[in-house]
TrEMBL record:
Name of this chain's protein: EVE domain-containing protein
SUPFAM superfamilies tied to this protein: PUA domain-like
InterPro entries for this protein: EVE_domain, PUA-like_sf
Organism in which the protein naturally occurs: Methanococcus maripaludis (strain C7 / ATCC BAA-1331)
Domain EVE: 2-144
Gene3D superfamilies registered for this protein in UniProt: ph1033 like domains
Length: 146
């Protein structure tokens, strides 16, 4: 079994919860191609910087899902596009089933010192500037509290 941290926005975390689908852009084809049925995906919600109209939001772990399908391509718009790429539909998709939804999301920053896949603990968010990151079983268990 493989484990992946899936980096998404608050809006798309809701889509994942509702539709039980994870999708990425063509840019991440190599990464999502490593995903197989039975693998676990941890949904990591990106934080937001404080703006004039909203408070800052930290990064959270929202849920864990098991992949239930092979990789498929679907261009139906279900996800919110990135502001820099408004036509993006994240067409490379897998279906999911819930493993665990965290009623109280896990604050990711508190886990950083223990994460083996994050090499630079001071600039840790650099490890998450992509759609997906494969992680080891030890990191997976620390994140989900196993």
């Amino acid at each position: 079994m493989n484990y992946f941290l899936c980096i998404t926005t608050e809006e798309n975390a809701k889509v994942i919860l509702d539709k039980k689908i994870w999708g990425v852009s063509e840019k991440y084809k190599n990464t999502i191609s490593k995903v197989s049925p039975g693998d676990h995906l941890i949904i990591y919600e990106m934080g937001k910087s404080k703006t004039k109209t909203s408070e800052a939001k930290p990064q959270y772990i929202r849920a864990v899902y098991e992949v239930t399908s092979e990789l498929k391509e679907d261009t139906k718009k279900i996800f919110e596009a990135h502001p820099n790429n408004p036509k993006e539909v994240y067409p490379l998709r897998v279906k999911l089933k819930e493993v665990k939804i965290f009623e109280n999301p896990i604050l990711f920053k508190e886990l950083v010192p223990e994460m083996e896949f994050i090499k630079n603990k001071k600039q840790w968010s650099g490890s998450l500037r992509r759609a997906m990151a494969q992680i080891g079983e030890k990191d997976y268990k620390k994140i989900i509290g196993a």
